[in-house]
Amino acid sequence: MTTVGERAVRLLGDSIRAAVWPTRGEDARWSRPHSRLLRPVPVLTGLYGVIVAIAVSGAVLNERMTGGLAFLALLPMAGALALAPRRPLDAWRIGTAWLVVLAFLLPPPPAPAPGLEVWGWLLWTPLLLLGAWGAPGRTTLGVAVVSGLAVVVLVVATPADVPLSELGLTLSALAFPLGAGAALGARWDTRRALEVERRELAAAQAERGALAERARIAREMHDVVAHHMSMIAVRCETAPYRLGRLPAPARAELAEVATAAREALREMQGLLGVLRTGETERTPQPGLADIEPLLVEARAAGVELTWEIVEVEVPAPVGLTAFRIVAQGLANARQHAPGAPVHVAITDGLVVEIVNGRGTGPGTPGGGTGIPSMRERAEVHGGTLDAGPTADGFRLRAELPR
């Protein structure tokens, strides 16, 4: 296990490396929508650097170096200031490194000097502020540490006569732009996080409204369909009494239609309850074991149906998908090819195949959502579904993972 000290050293090393070494996307925190008011800012900051360089080379450094050479020596700092509004970390790196180079390049002042001369603060402070502002995460710590090390070099290692007492004062002054930049960056991050949360909340509210609208539509559909299904069930159940004597096959057919109508009503009511409460269904869902009773019921309803089912163990969601595909496939065959022979095969693997021949009567058009819905069910589990006409009918084949 690593100790607290080891973790602190690792954090410090990572922070310094992130501050010194450029990485892709490090200015993502700084990115903002372009505005006409912000476009002149790099020009203004660069102009500020040039003005400071002209003033310093003509009034401060002219006694230590030729004015023209001093101006050229300060130009990289002006360039860093022009870059700072767009690439604050790169500008801070350039400015900090060149400020240390200038301490060795320029002749030292004749008298004891402060840790950083006034002109140095004028050029470096904006870079410190924007660098700490734009540094993401732990990189802010690295910016502070590297800037402090630069101050130590300026006080201790340069040819200038700098009293050691200036080190503490210069480091204390360094804390102001760095602290202000870090505070502005933290405020910036907080505002952006709030904006993201606000957008996510708006999206969630819109989705909730869409779900509520779907539930309302489902209730209206239930009210419309339930009325007609109830009438079908009632008329089928009362037909033997209203119409007098009926053949036994007719009575059995009407009873099966009434039972199917009642089953459909119960399923619709259960689905509506889920939409109203937002809870998952509590009643057991059909699976592979329920496919054979479904086929028996379809054969009793008059479908010329044969089947071959291999018993396999699959997860409940996969079994439910197989059941729904078989039910929808039988419904499609009855609708589009009435009277056609149908063969259902469920083989190990798990492969569901439904093949029907040509119908004995004209089919009725559907809504065109049966096959897409079955394909979506199969793809949810990573399976596939193919459907298309054959030489003498139609074939549907679904492969589901076990």
Automatic annotation (TrEMBL):
UniProt key word Transmembrane helix: yes
- Protein name in UniProt: histidine kinase
Q: Which keywords, in A-to-Z order, does the entry hold?
A: ATP-binding, Kinase, Membrane, Nucleotide-binding, Phosphoprotein, Transferase, Transmembrane, Transmembrane helix, Two-component regulatory system
Which Gene3D superfamilies does the record cross-reference, listed alphabetically? 1.20.5.1930, Histidine kinase-like ATPase, C-terminal domain
Q: Which domain of life is it from?
A: Bacteria
One cellular component (GO) term of this entry: membrane
**EC annotation?**
2.7.13.3
Task: Name any one Pfam family assigned in the record.
Answer: HisKA_3
**Catalytic activity of the protein:** ATP + protein L-histidine = ADP + protein N-phospho-L-histidine
Cite the source lineage: Bacteria, Bacillati, Actinomycetota, Actinomycetes, Pseudonocardiales
Tell me the segments the record calls region Disordered: 382-402
Kindly list the residue ranges recorded as spanning the membrane.
Answer: 41-61, 67-84, 91-106, 118-135, 142-162
Q: What InterPro entries has UniProt attached to this entry?
A: HATPase_C_sf (IPR036890), Sensor_HK_TwoCompSys (IPR050482), Sig_transdc_His_kin_sub3_dim/P (IPR011712)
